[in-house]
């Protein structure tokens, strides 16, 4: 059964996560996006911690390195 209330609660979370899996640009790992993850009450504490850890790891890389990782991840050869 689909929990529409839960989906509604997660709507903003899905929007932020979709930005993170889209092709990275200069805004992808900005402090504003990190703050959105940090204050997202729909995420469990454990999930928020994991996402912030990954976010910080990727934010520490140059934009070229992140774009290369993205390209390798979605390469369809």
Keywords:
globular; 66% helix; mainly alpha; 77 residues
In whole angstroms, how far apart are the ends? 37 Å
Sketch the major β-sheet: none
Q: Indicate the radius of gyration in whole angstroms.
A: 14 Å
The portion of residues forming beta strands comes to under 5%
Structural class: mainly alpha
Shape: globular
**Spans with pLDDT under 50 lasting ≥5 residues?**
none
Mean pLDDT: 92
Order of helices and strands: HHHHH
By DSSP, the count of extended strands is 0
Number of helices, where a helix is a run of at least 4 consecutive DSSP H or I residues: 5
**Helical residues, percent:** 55-70%
In short:
This protein is mostly helical. Helix content is 66%, strand content 0%. This is Nitrate reductase delta subunit.
Explain what the structure shows.
It is a single chain. By secondary structure, the protein is mainly α. It has a domain at 42-77. It is 66% helix and 0% strand. The chain has five helices and no strands. It is globular. 3% of the residues are buried. This is Nitrate reductase delta subunit.
């Amino acid at each position: 059964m689909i929990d529409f209330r839960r989906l509604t609660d997660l709507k903003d979370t899905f929007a932020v996560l979709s930005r993170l899996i889209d092709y990275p640009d200069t805004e992808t790992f900005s402090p504003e996006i990190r703050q959105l993850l940090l204050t997202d009450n729909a995420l469990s504490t454990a999930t928020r911690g994991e996402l912030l850890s990954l976010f910080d790891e990727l934010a520490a890389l140059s934009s070229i390195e992140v774009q290369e990782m993205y390209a390798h991840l979605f390469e369809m050869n």
